[in-house]
Write a structure and sequence with these properties.
Number of helices: 4
CATH class: Alpha Beta
Strand content: 25-35%
CATH topology: Nuclear Transport Factor 2, Chain: A
Number of strands: 5
Shape: globular
Order of helices and strands: HHEEEEEHH
Oligomer: single chain
Low-confidence stretches: 1-15, 151-162
Largest sheet: 5 strands, antiparallel
Mean pLDDT: 82
Number of domains: 1
Radius of gyration: 18 Å
Length: 162
């Protein structure tokens, strides 16, 4: 009986990881690049676990002009059992941990022809879900809204009226 229970739990973990990687692969290229920036930042920081993309919560993109767009992506990362610091681990073999809180991340950035522009610097903010407050959400949104400005006459017509 214990063997069956262990087998079912392992199978559920692999299925969950596979579903999450499928969700990642379904993201369009500009959104994947933003997730990759967040993963690079988180996995190269002082966190104790290796994280992978888990799911998108909210996505928006605004085409400005001449191949320039502004992206906003709110998503979750989840800790895995892969060794922290592993170079290019196989995501299909990194089982998700269910004993750690999710990381709630926001990535906002501007792109030119689907490449992330270095200016303004992309904004990546990740926080453990239990620590996410309305104030943190507002601070993130305000920061990202401040990045969504462009100069030039052709772009003035793309701004929303408030």
């Amino acid at each position: 009986m214990a063997f069956l229970l262990t087998f079912l739990l392992l199978a559920a973990g692999v299925l969950s990881c596979t579903e999450a990687q499928e969700a990642y692969s379904k993201l369009s290229e500009p959104y994947r690049k933003g997730v990759d920036l967040a993963l690079q930042q988180v996995n190269n920081s002082a966190v104790q676990h290796h994280f992978l993309f888990f799911k998108s919560l909210y996505k928006s993109d605004v085409y400005v002009s001449f191949g320039t767009s502004h992206f906003y992506h709110n998503f979750n990362l989840k800790a895995t059992r892969c060794v922290r610091g592993a170079v290019n681990p196989d995501p299909t073999k990194c089982q998700f941990r269910n004993d750690r809180p999710l990381l709630d991340c926001v990535a906002c950035y501007n792109t030119l022809d689907d490449d992330i522009k270095p200016d303004p610097k992309p904004y990546i903010h990740c926080i453990h879900k239990p620590s996410l407050t309305p104030e943190v959400k507002k601070k993130r949104r305000d920061h990202c809204d401040g990045m969504n400005h462009f100069t030039g006459g052709a772009t003035l017509l793309t701004h929303k009226r408030q």
